[in-house]
Amino acid sequence: MLGSGDGSYIIKLRGLPFSTTAEDVLTFLSGVNVINDKDGVHLTEVRPGRPSGECFVEVQSQDDVTHALKKDKENIGRRYIEVFSTDRQDMEWALNAMRQSENGFDVIPNVSDDFGIVKLRGLPFGCSKEEIIQFFNGLSVVQDGVHLLSDHTGRASGEAFVYFVDKQSARDALDRDMEKIGHRYIEVFLSSADKVRAYGARLEGGGFKSRGYRPTPYDRNDRLSGRFGGRGRGSFARGGSGGSYTGRGGRLGSSHCVHMRGLPFKATPQDIAYFFKPIRPLNINIHYDNSGRPSGEADVEFECHEDAMRAMRRDKNNMEHRYIELFMNSSPTFKSPRPFRTY
Question: For residues 273-303, b (16+ Cβ closer than 10 Å) or e, as one string?
Fold first, then answer.
């Protein structure tokens, strides 16, 4: 789905049986030169012990990518496998998410009513516990008091609970609201032990798995349905009805927009979101002509100017067999502090 664009040659397989091994992948890719043999095959999991049905494979050349793509829709066992060209950023995003998911909740976390607790939102992908502790430099975070959260696919959600030694420290932590880690503005909300326990109980009881998602070759028109529920024609929605997708902490009407041109006519909002991964769009609007057919253009809104600038790095990358032109419509803006909130 994505062009490589960074000098690496990476392919992605999707729809693998849960029992698939690296040896099975090498057999499937017979004739393709895989770098470092089995070490060049990266099977992913949504959580430890639960395969995702996807893997990334590092190959030696563009000719190997082309050869691998010819195996699209061939079978492993009774399952047919989708084969995509992708890039190293996409692979590292998935592999880092798999590692980071180990920092999330596997059981209801140990929490005391005496702790002061905040919830963070908008964390950069791959953000470490140490970076969060440094973000709160000068405040007393409880030992092992940073819990990075995962979404229902097992990947990093960009959120975390942080425990402080007392409630006053948590209130002081609110002063860090809308300060940055890297290029991301971090939202800080006051939380509580009861809310943490409720979160853990829902997770333990499967409350975040009711829309669980395992990529398979049968949902290519809704590739991210486990994370984002499509609503309305040509739009991307989450958590309600209407014609737009609102991402993490997002608001419609963002001034940080990227215009896309040259889209395949069958491209869906999910395809567009995947094209920009790991950057998360706030809103995706596919344009239609007067006859109601897709025009090959779309507007994509992002949370901040930095995200829009990162998105522009995808200019001239491919979606399927078409290269996509991107046009920036964003400028830096000052973000004023937000009012006191709880979460």
Answer: bbbbbbbbbbbbbbeeeeeeebebbbbbbbb
Strands (E), 2-136: 10-14, 41-47, 50-58, 75-76, 79-80, 82-86, 116-121
Report the predicted TM-score, pTM, of the whole model to 2 decimal places: 0.43
pLDDT of 107 over the 70 cut: no
Structure token pair of residue 187: 């939202």
- Are residues 255 and 54 in contact, defined by beta-carbon separation less than 8 angstroms? no
Beta-strand ranges (E) seen in 48-194 are 50-58, 75-76, 79-80, 82-86, 116-121, 141-150, 156-164, 180-181, 184-185, 187-190
Q: Which two tokens stand for residue 227?
A: 């994370």
Q: Residue 212 pLDDT more than 60?
A: no
What digits encode the pLDDT tens for the residues 129-183? 888 999 999 999 998 899 888 765 555 678 899 999 999 999 999 999 999 888 7
Q: What is the pLDDT of residue 21?
A: 95
Task: Name the token pair of 322.
Answer: 């078409």
- Give the CA distances from residue 334 to residues 29, 176, 301, 331, in Å, rounded to whole numbers and listed in that order: 50, 16, 17, 10
Q: What gap in Å lies between CA 243 and CA 193, rounded to an integer?
A: 36
